[in-house]
Amino acid sequence: MRFSRTLKSTVALGATAGMMMLGLGAASAHVSATPSETAAGAYSLVTFAVGHGCDGSPTTAITISLPEELTDATPTVNPNWTISKSMQKLDTPITLPNGSKVSERTGSITYTAKTPLIDHERDTFTLSLKLPETVGTTLHFPTLQKCEKGQTDWKEIPAAGADHDSVDSPAPEVTVTAAVAGDGHGVQADAAQVTEANDAGSSWPAWLGLGAGLAGLILGGLAFLRTTRKA
Question: What is the pLDDT of residues 154-211, one digit of tens each?
């Protein structure tokens, strides 16, 4: 009886673990984008992760296209890959927030493997970029994954309100959030507290010195009185 129950429990646990593994496999199947920062106007390191090849074929190149909201991004060096940029001429020059104008933008950045990334091995590609000022903007980064045999174009954009996994080959995305209000008062307050603490700490030796001086005067006075009485 106990053996039967144990067997049923083991089978149930195995089935649950199997379903979890399948879920994890499905969730990690897409090329994902993970930002270090999402606040409007902030600089962010966006890391793109590739965890598999094309139907078992090793990955040879990853081309990340920048959304129209961005004019440039700086790729982080990956020693296993060479990097190249594809520039795009603009029909109308764009004026940047700092007042400068640009007549071309970075259209895409390509990482080409020195040695093909075998299937089921993971690698990451990080771009440094400045996020737009508009809160709620969703940036889509269509990513072309080329393999020794075949390719996968991660460029599909879900319908408004639909889940990211509602399409077969979703483009990696980042959504811009509201910046946290910070006018420096907190830093100033902290600095003031540190200064106050330092002042308090530095005043201790003075108070100790004053106390020692008063104690010396009192003892000296008592000694003087004793001497006077004996005389």
Answer: 999 988 888 878 899 999 999 999 988 763 333 333 434 434 444 444 444 444 455 5
Residue 75: name the closest of 96, 46, 103, 50 by CA: 46
- pLDDT tens for each residue of 10-32: 444 444 344 333 333 333 478 99
CB-based contact 65:142 (threshold 8 Å): yes
